[in-house]
Structure formats: C-alpha cells, structure tokens
User: Which sequence fits this backbone?
C-alpha cells in the first residue's frame, strides 16, 4: 500500500530501532526520542502527537504481527511503551533465551505472584520451588542467579527480596495471563489494563491499580467503589 508506506519516514524507523534495542521505554524517554528522531530527520513534530506517531509505525508492523503497546507501571503509574510480538503472546517468546527448567521456574514464580494477595512473591518462596522443578531441579544458588537474570531482562522486578512482574512482562503477556489465570486475573476498573498489584472491592470484587486508586479517590471525601458505590474499605495508598 503506497499511501501507507508514504507515512513511514526515517524518523519513524529510527524511533522503532531504538525502541527495539531497549525493549521497553518510559513515557518521558519515548517523548524525548520522538522529538529527537523528528529533529534529526527534519520530520513534522508536535509534542502531543506521540501516540499518532506510534500508530503510524503500528500500521506498518501489523503484517509482521508486531505492535508498540502502551502500558502503565504498577508502582508509580507512569506510562511505558513496549514492542510486543503478537504472533507469540505466550511464554514461547522467552523459550529462545532460557532453558526449560529456567522457564519452569519463571512459570512457577508467575503463579506465586498472580495468585498472591498483593501481587508479590518473596524470594524465599520462589527459591523453595527450585528443587521441585519437574524439568530439572535447581540448586538455590543457581535459582538466585536465574532470578537475577529475569530482573536484568525485565521480566521481573525486585524490591527488598520481594518479586513482582515487570511492566514489560505485563504489557507483553497481558493476553497470556488473562487466558491462563481466568479465575484471578482482572483488569483495572479505571484504566482497563491488567492489574497484578491491585486493591479489590470487598463487595463487588472489581480491582484497581494502586496509582489508579490514588488518582480516583483524590477528589473524594468518602471513598466509594466506582462500580457498586459501596464504601472502599482498603487503605488509600
């Protein structure tokens, strides 16, 4: 489609290349990159047109089953952009980078995180799984090293010995998680993206990201559930 091809400039290509090398990028970084790419290639630039700029790239990525997706950091609510392979939305996309028992440890870690109350799993609980792996048991030292790699590769985030899913993992594996954890996985009632670390309404069961909870209840004197209007009993972060 020549009309479509005309929309893709060297500025778009440079943006895509840089994002591919990063895998994921925080919103403010993506905005800076957008500006820089347009300046270098003397392309039209408007500071509020990043999403339009990205949708042009996405229209060209469509036949390749790839897409730049926007997601949110569950910790601070900041926007992130990640390049997602739609042809392999499952853990299969990790298979080329890790051994079978490393993948099994990741799946089991994912289980612990998603099935937990708060969206975190302790290193102790994860390391206890290492010698229960069906593929090939791991020594604790080895498992510690593998967890470190998962953090470096931005599949997991770690804080004070507690692990959760990295923003990159949530953006890339949203569909996989929704399909495979149907009983527990929920979307945030406010931003409609997958919520791992969330608060849940005791009355109707809807969930909200902590940053979304903070934002939603900021203006309210008495916090009430946006769905059922019952009193929101969780502590507002």
Assistant:
């Amino acid at each position: 489609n020549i009309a479509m091809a005309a929309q893709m400039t060297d500025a778009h290509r440079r943006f895509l290349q840089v994002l591919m090398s990063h895998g994921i990028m925080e919103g403010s970084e993506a905005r800076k990159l957008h500006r820089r790419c347009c300046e270098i290639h003397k392309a039209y630039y408007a500071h509020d047109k990043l999403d339009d700029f990205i949708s042009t790239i996405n229209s060209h990525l469509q036949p390749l089953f790839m897409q730049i997706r926007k997601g949110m950091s569950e910790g601070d609510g900041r926007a992130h952009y990640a390049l997602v392979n739609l042809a392999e939305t499952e853990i299969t996309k990790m298979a080329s980078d890790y051994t079978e028992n490393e993948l099994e440890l990741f799946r089991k870690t994912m289980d612990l995180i998603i099935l937990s109350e708060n969206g975190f799993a302790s290193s102790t609980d994860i390391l206890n799984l290492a010698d229960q792996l069906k593929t090939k048991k791991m020594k604790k030292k080895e498992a510690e090293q593998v967890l470190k790699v998962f953090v470096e590769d931005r599949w997991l985030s770690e804080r004070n010995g507690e692990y959760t899913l990295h923003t990159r993992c949530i953006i890339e594996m949203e569909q996989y998680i929704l399909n495979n954890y149907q009983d527990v996985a929920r979307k945030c009632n406010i931003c409609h993206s997958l919520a791992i670390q969330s608060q849940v309404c005791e009355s109707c069961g809807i969930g909200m990201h902590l940053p979304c909870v903070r934002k939603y209840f900021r203006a309210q004197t008495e916090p009430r559930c946006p769905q059922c209007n019952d009193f929101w009993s969780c502590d507002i972060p």
Notes: The longest helix spans residues 100-115.
